[in-house]
Each structure stands twice: as structure tokens, then as C-alpha cells.
Amino acid sequence: MPRTPEQHRAMRAATRERVRTAAIRLFCRRGYAGVDMRAIAAEAGISTGSIYRHFATKDELYDDLVAEAATGLRALARSFTDTDLVVEPLRGFVEVFLADLSRDTGAVEFYLLMNQVFASGVEAGPERGAAVEDLLRAHREVTGAVVTLIERGRGRGLTRPAPAAELATCFFATLGGLAMTRSALGEAFVAPSLATVTGALLVEETTV
Fold first, then answer.
1. What is the pLDDT of residues 78-117, one digit of tens each?
2. How far apart are CA 46 and CA 154, in angstroms?
């Protein structure tokens, strides 16, 4: 029985997602320069010819991942700024982050890959500069949103009295360190509690 157009679209979307997951894994392990489309296709379990139906070049695939990260960061920034709440949006984000650490969904590798981008800048050449620069701008937007959240909470006695920019830096450094530790230790990783992570910013656990 021939497949319907909807089935074809679903299969194409599933294969495209396998390609993206494979690319995240390999870019994270080997870096951008150490990966080619043949390796990504093999990791995804498809032929080299098939991968080009989804992404014309490695640059296009990489930029797709970077663009997704930038979109996610801006959504996160809005979740911190488009509300008058302080504790709930922060705790909600950390809950999701810790849940991602406990599951083998590729979220940790994606997070580490984006950290590589932050650290290395436009490593692969100027042709990818726009995508990387946009991701860096999105990262600065999130950092600024957390600084604003901390300052908003300080007036209510909810966040710690240290400089907001310093607290934000320590917060993101903690998240990055947790992702690296999870990647290194695998199943031996012991995830911290929500209160342990948010305690660096919040005076106490509250739902105000």
C-alpha cells in the first residue's frame, strides 16, 4: 500500500531529526572541523546521498542547530522578562534543565556544543559568522534577562545581595559545569537538587 503524503512528510521529518541528533553528537565530540557529512550520515544510519536531501552542506546543518539554540535562548529570555514573577520562572527553567540532565535525549550534548560555539567563536570561517554572532547576541540577552530578574528580586528580598552580574555569571557557570560533569560521568552522575542550584541566586525557596 503506497504511503500517503502525510506519512512521507512524517518520515522525512523523523529522518531530518535523526540527522540533526547525529550531527549534535559528532560536533560535540569532534568539533566542527573534525566532522563531515559522510560521518554524520553514518551516525544517523542513512546513506551519504540521503543526507543531502535534508541539508545541502555541513555549514547549513550547523547553522540550523545554531539558529535553533538562538531561538531557544530568546524564548528563555522572554520567560524571565515577560512576567513580574522572580522565583517561579527561574525555578521552572532549572527544573527543565535538571530533567534534561537525567535523560539521554541529546540535550546535554546540544548544550555542550553551544558552549563550544561561545568559547570558539567563528572557528570554521567567516561564512558562518552571522549565525554564530546571532547566537552570541541571544546569549547576552539571556544573561541580561537573568541580571534583570535578580535585580527585580532584590527589591523584594528574594535574591542575594551580591552584584547581579556576578550572580548571573556564577549561575550560568554552574549550569555549564553540570552539563560537562554529566557528559563525563554518564550514569554515575549525581544531579543536585533544585534548591542547591537556585540557592546561588535565591535567598530561600519560595513561590513568590
1. 999 999 999 999 999 999 999 999 887 788 999 999 888 8
2. 53
